Amino acid sequence: MCRCKKARALQTTEPAINLWRDGWYRFARRLDSPNRGPRPAAAHVDLIVVHSISLPPAVFGGQYVQQLFTNTLDWDAHPYFKQIEGLQVSSHFLISRLGELWQFVSCDERAWHAGASRYRGRDNCNDDSIGIELEGIEGGAFEREQYETLTGLCAALALRYPIQHIAGHEHVAPGRKTDPGSGFSWANLQHGLGWPSNRFPEVTDLPKRS
User: What is the 3-state secondary structure (H, E, C) of 128-155?
Assistant: First the structure.
């Protein structure tokens, strides 16, 4: 059984103590990012933020996203990179089109993924959220393998942290960000997780809340 399939099979049934060590997830490929910092002392990590990313836009595969998150991207490698030259960002996780899972920042620490943001009555979502990037484009469809890995990861996160909310970048930074966009199926994720709809953003493909 491949690493990704084995992870999906085990991550929702194993005790949390076997899945996490110092905020690092057992089934993710670790690649440390320098773009991180401590969370505020009173941070209550109860939010997952879903993003989409591709470098260059709409080009999948390769290591450009990993290089961006580790400040090793060659800004001369593609003309588009000049538009983001010097950008220092990170996410806790990245899920490739094949469902492969990478981790760049311990979930006990603050990653630089949400930017100026507000959700569930709180500002600065980086302080108390976990960021997950899906390789893809805003408004585009995502792969079955990505939903499988995302579902298992969210379930594992809920075993370790008091997760009560999950939203897209577009929901925590409306008007500024539009990812993951209309091609992402929140209903698919909710069905896989079995979580109540009030943990999810107000979107059209989820059942109406009572």
Answer: HEEEEEEECCCCCCCCHHHHHHHHHHHH
CA distances in angstroms from 39 to 173, 186, 197, listed in the order given: 20, 28, 28
Which residues are part of the catalytic machinery?
133
| Phi, psi angle pair for 166, to nearest 5° | -140, 135
Residue 182 carries which side chain, given as an amino acid letter? S
Q: What angle separates helix 144-160 from helix 3-10, to the nearest 10 degrees?
A: 50
Long-range pairs, 70-74, Cβ under 8 A, ≥24: 70/31, 70/32, 70/33, 70/34, 70/104, 71/33, 71/34, 71/35
Joined together, the tokens standing for residue 111 give 């990653």
Model confidence pLDDT, tens digit, residues 25-67: 999 999 999 999 999 998 999 999 999 999 999 999 999 999 9
What is the pTM (predicted TM-score) of this model?
0.92
Which DSSP symbol is given to 94?
A: E
**Domain at 3-193: CATH architecture:** 3-Layer(aba) Sandwich (3.40)
User: Could you identify the residue written with the tokens 């670790």?
Assistant: 30
